[in-house]
């Protein structure tokens, strides 16, 4: 019996060796594949964890950024309205001063300067803060991934963020002086008695923006963001110098300039929309004896409405207002303490601006890469 088994094994020895080698190889391959699969799963799990952690950190940075922007925008707006204070002029006009014409001329310059400075200052503030806070956010994320010496400590953070304090104070004053000159060139020739349309108001803002963009003496405010941020700062530390240079490179880039100009234009459009609402609300409908009744419709000033509808359609592009009558209501739109005053509308528009959000995300991504 044993000899027959031995003979059988000898006859099929090669087959057993080949079969064993095949099964052994399969076992080794399966073991290797399982090991690689576990490594891949662990790698993917770590990658997913890191992405989730990074996303949460970025979202936290964005919330901090928005809150900081809202707080500082309020301070900057109050600073601008304090420098360009129209209350004294309004009071003198109410007191029936002898030089009313000169006061109204001064008022029209100041009101348009206020609006333009708010648009530019809040746009510049939003962009610079968004860049700064996302640079810091990126560095802090990298620090959280390593136990080495931190790239940016609390003292350096405070020093870096204090750069914007110059803009809130002297920077805004510089901006007021520059923009006021541009406003005078455009607004001074407009007579107070002139009947003005919404399209002409829009043209005024566009002309002021064009003058500022092509200002060869003082420079375009958008391209001077670095000046407002770092030109008045003493840099005597290597790490601080590095982060400041990185910030300057970003703020001087064509992408940031383009995004900021887009934000400025968007804010002027928001202001024009609010002025359009004023035109519509201040429009005086045609008197009844000037209406032409045609069957069940009423035609007035070329606008058609149903007889049952009390509110006529108003084409704001055709409405005209005396310039002098427009000034007080626009001034009220700047200063009134409700949610849709011009400073709050501009700040809200900037907070929701998708291009600025993408800019912040791109800056964070660059500085958070390990």
From TrEMBL:
Coiled coil: none annotated. Keywords: Membrane, Peroxisome biogenesis, Transmembrane, Transmembrane helix. It holds the Pfam family Peroxin-3. The keyword Signal does not apply. One of its GO terms (molecular function) is protein-macromolecule adaptor activity. One of its GO terms (biological process) is protein import into peroxisome membrane. The keyword Transmembrane helix applies. The chain crosses the membrane at residues 16-33. One of its GO terms (cellular component) is peroxisomal membrane. Involved in peroxisome biosynthesis and integrity. Assembles membrane vesicles before the matrix proteins are translocated. As a docking factor for PEX19, is necessary for the import of peroxisomal membrane proteins in the peroxisomes. Interacts with PEX19. This is Peroxisomal biogenesis factor 3.
């Amino acid at each position: 019996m044993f000899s027959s088994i031995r003979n059988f094994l000898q006859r099929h020895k090669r087959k057993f060796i080949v079969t064993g080698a095949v099964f052994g190889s399969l076992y080794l391959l399966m073991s290797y594949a399982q090991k690689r699969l576990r490594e891949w799963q662990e790698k993917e799990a770590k990658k997913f964890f890191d992405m989730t952690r990074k996303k949460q950190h970025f979202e936290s940075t964005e919330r901090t950024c928005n809150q900081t922007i809202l707080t500082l925008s309020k301070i900057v707006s109050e600073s601008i309205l304090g420098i360009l204070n129209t209350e004294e002029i309004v009071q003198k006009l109410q007191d029936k001063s002898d030089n009313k014409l000169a006061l109204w001329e001064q008022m029209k310059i100041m009101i348009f300067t206020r609006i333009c400075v708010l648009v530019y200052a809040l746009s510049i503030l939003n962009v610079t803060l968004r860049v700064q806070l996302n640079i810091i956010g990126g560095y802090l994320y990298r620090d959280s991934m390593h136990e080495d010496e931190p790239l940016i400590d609390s003292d350096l953070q405070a020093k870096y963020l204090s750069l914007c304090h110059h803009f809130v104070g002297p920077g805004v004053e510089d901006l007021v002086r520059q923009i006021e000159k541009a406003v005078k060139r455009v607004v001074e020739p407009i007579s107070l008695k002139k009947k003005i349309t919404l399209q002409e108001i829009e043209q005024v803002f566009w002309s002021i923006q064009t003058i500022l963009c092509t200002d060869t003496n003082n420079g375009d405010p958008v391209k001077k963001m670095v000046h407002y941020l770092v030109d008045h700062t003493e840099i005597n530390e290597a790490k601080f110098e590095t982060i400041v240079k990185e910030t300057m490179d970003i703020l001087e880039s064509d992408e940031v300039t383009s995004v900021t100009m887009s934000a400025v234009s968007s804010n002027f459009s928001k202001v024009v929309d609010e002025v359009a609402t004023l035109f519509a609300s201040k429009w005086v409908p045609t008197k009844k004896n000037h209406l032409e009744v045609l069957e069940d419709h009423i035609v007035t000033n070329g606008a058609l409405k149903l007889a049952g509808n009390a509110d006529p359609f108003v084409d704001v592009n055709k409405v005209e207002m005396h310039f002098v009558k427009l000034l007080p209501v626009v001034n009220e739109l700047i200063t009134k303490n409700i949610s849709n005053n011009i400073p709050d509308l501009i700040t809200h528009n900037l907070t929701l601006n998708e291009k600025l959000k993408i800019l912040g995300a791109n800056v964070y991504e660059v500085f958070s890469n390990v």
